[in-house]
Amino acid sequence: MIELVNVAKHYGDKIALKDLNLKIREGEIFGFLGHNGAGKSTTIKCLVSTINPTSGDIFFDNQKLGDNRLAIKKTIGYVPDTPDLFLQLTANEYWNLIAVAFSLSEDTKNQQIAKYTKLFDFENKGNELLDNFSHGMRQKAILIGALLSDPDVWILDEPMQGLDPQAAFDLKELMKAHAAKGKTVIFSTHVLDTAQQLCDELAILKQGELIYNGSVDELLASAGDESLESVYLKMAGRQSEQQTSAVINSESSEA
Ligand SMILES: Nc1ncnc2c1ncn2[C@@H]1O[C@H](COP(=O)(O)OP(=O)(O)OP(=O)(O)O)[C@@H](O)[C@H]1O
Ligand SMILES: [Mg+2]
User: Fold this and answer.
1) CB 33 within 8 A of CB 88
2) Backbone angle region of 124, left / alpha / beta, with phi > 0 → left and psi within -120 to 50 → alpha
3) Strands 201-206 and 209-214, how do they pair?
């Protein structure tokens, strides 16, 4: 179990995250939802330890992240919110870097690369520079890198972004299979259908605050027969369609 206890992140005067308390259980797919700037990537970066919370603690199986950083990081596969990294490396050089960081044997590395490049239709691209890939191809290269070490904990920041429908489908199947093995899958998304299909549990953030934590079913049950889109927009966004119409019409009348 992963536990966040009163986790906050401030950037100067800006509060990106306010006293977040969450429990994320193994064997479940846990999804973060929230508008742009709500704090999803900030939470994820705290979890994978690329940034430190301003206050609060994070525990992986009762071990404090701050005190066991390296050991815990070895159990995590992370897909960051942008695939525009290490652009001057080829895909193979990037995967080799990860294999060294995670102390993978040559055989394991090659088997994993063969498995995932086949799955994601990415064979024979290893010697190309990441810089020369399309956005979705970079996303695939980063995703394959994140899965190379067969990590127990997957932490994926908008992982379907830019993936073609086949790759997005395959990734969703991988996520379900990983959780079904009793492992942990955490991801963020803006696609409500994806959240509805995948998530056992949701956290909805708004301006750095947790405004919902529970299952999709519980959320929908609390709102009669409304769609997830409608429930989500009422919680995280404008309160009604009329407010959106008012903004659209005011913009068009000024133009
Ligand atoms: N390095 C930084 N310096 C200052 N403010 C930051 C920094 N990183 C994030 N923020 C702020 O923290 C808040 C939360 O950002 P975050 O990236 O977590 O949002 P998000 O929910 O991931 O949004 P998106 O859906 O656009 O990816 C925003 O107000 C953002 O401007
Ligand atoms: Mg983000």
Assistant:
1) no
2) left
3) antiparallel
Residue nearest to atom 28 of ligand 1 (CA): 37
Task: Report the SS3 class of residue 79.
Answer: strand
Provide the Cα torsion 193, 172, 80, 149; round to 10°. Answer: 170
CB of 216 closer than 6 angstroms to any ligand 1 atom: no
Q: Ligand 2: distance of its center to the CA of 106 in Å?
A: 34
Q: How far apart are CA 4 and CA 172, in angstroms?
A: 25
Q: Is the CB of 11 under 6 A from ligand 1?
A: yes
224: left (phi over 0), alpha (psi -120 to 50) or beta: left
DSSP 90: B
Does residue 61 or residue 235 have the better pLDDT? 61
Q: Which atom of ligand 1 is nearest to the CA of 44?
A: 18
- 222 pLDDT band (50/70/90 cuts)? confident
pLDDT above 60 (res 254): no
Instruction: Compute the distance between CA of residue 177 and CA of residue 119 in angstroms, rounded to an integer.
Output: 14
Length of the chain measured in residues: 255
CA separation (Å) from 198 to 222, 233, 251? 19, 19, 37
Instruction: Map tokens 């294999």 to a residue.
Output: 99
The token pair that represents 18 in the structure block? 């306010």
